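Journal club prep — side note

Before the paper discussion, L.F. wants everyone to see what a predicted structure for a comparable chain looks like in token form. Sequence:
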Amino acid sequence: MVEVGKTEEMEERGLVLQALRGYLEELWDSGVDELDFAELPASDDDCRGVGNPRARLLFVMTGAGFAGEAGELLAKIIQAMGFAAADVHLLSFPAQPSSAGSSRRETILGRIAAVAPEVVVTLGEPAAQLLLESGEPVDTLRGNFHDLAGIPLMPTLHPDVLLENPALKREVWSDMQQVMKRLASTSR
């Protein structure tokens, strides 16, 4: 019998491989037939993406993605929305400040464009401020859609904040209800 942790690890690897395959197919379709890794710049951003490479819903957050308590809570939120973790796409990046903030933003915007979701949700202040190029606190930004290059973006609280203060789950659920309503009105 396979241990639970190993099963989750195998599922995560499958999601990563699925996302990689989708990305490579996009490159091929756009005419790229060779990659020169020697010319790729070194980056301290370490932006990671997992999930459906054609997801209608994309999340952006700092931290370890679906790992740990915050990741488990995010998976529960996604499930409550009527999705499986494999149905959405999640981009995560380190919480520490990057010396190349605009480069990190461009990397994330490029990955969002590659997935072409119908809605983006930022989880937490760093993700919201980075993508919206705003200094406003997430409490001010959340609860309303913002425009991200033609894609509706809903900022909301990070799962870590919800673990610290479970009373805030109601606010996040209100945001997610708006996201579900938007997705229902734009069904592919």
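L.F.'s comment for the group: The chain has seven helices and six strands. Keep this in mind when we get to the figures.
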